[in-house]
Amino acid sequence: AQLVESGGGLVQPGGSLRLSCKASGFTFSNYDMRWYRQVPGKERGLVARISTYGGSTDYADSVKGRFTVSRDNAKNTVYLQMNNLNPEDTAVYYCQRPAGPLWGQGTQVTVSS
After folding, report:
1. What is the rounded CA–CA span in Å between residue 53 and residue 64?
2. Average pLDDT, the chain
3. Can you tell me the distance from the alpha carbon of 92 to that of 75, in angstroms, rounded to the nearest whole number?
4. Residue 15 · residue 85 · CB < 8 Å
5. Whole-angstrom distance, CA of residue 84 vs CA of residue 93
6. Measured in whole angstroms, how far is the alpha carbon of residue 78 from the centre of its chain?
7. What is the pLDDT of residue 100?
8. pLDDT score, position 110
9. What's CA 66's distance to the chain center, in Å?
10. What pLDDT digit, counting tens, does each position of 36-83 carry?
11. Alpha carbon of residue 46 to chain centroid
């Protein structure tokens, strides 16, 4: 089983990015999925979660109204659309399958002018 994130990069404040997490080696549609982020010296924090078929989502207060989590079970992929980014969103972003847990390798997001 494996999770591979992509889509990170450098963006200016107010900009947008969409992260993707491609799953393989397990039945993706059977599992809730989560996005976390981590900055150096701090614990990894939960950003968003989504239920197996996307009917239920939840967000950290700091990203509500700006980030949207979604999934495409046919593509075994979970997404994190991030809008109106600010420097405090700078972090390594990880997707996670809570069962296990199974983690991806992370993708760096840097918000800077």
Report:
1. 20
2. 97
3. 23
4. yes
5. 16
6. 8
7. 92
8. 98
9. 13
10. 999 999 999 999 999 999 999 999 999 999 999 999 999 999 999 999
11. 9
Cα distances from 51 to residues 11, 23, 34, 90, 110, in angstroms, run: 29, 15, 9, 26, 28
Q: How far is 30 from 52, CA to CA, in rounded Å?
A: 6
Backbone angles phi, psi at 35, to 5 degrees: -115, 135
C-alpha to C-alpha distance for 50 and 47, rounded to whole angstroms = 11
Full DSSP string of the chain: -EEEEE--EEE-TT--EEEEEEEESS-GGGS-EEEEEE-TTS--EEEEEE-TTSS-EEE-TTTTTTEEEEEETTTTEEEEEE-S--GGG-EEEEEEETTTTEE---EEEEE--
22 Cβ contact partners less than 8 Å away, ≥ 6 residues apart: 3, 4, 6, 75, 76, 77
Phi, psi of 107 (to 5 degrees): -140, 135
Which backbone phi and psi does 27 adopt, to 5 degrees?
-80, 95
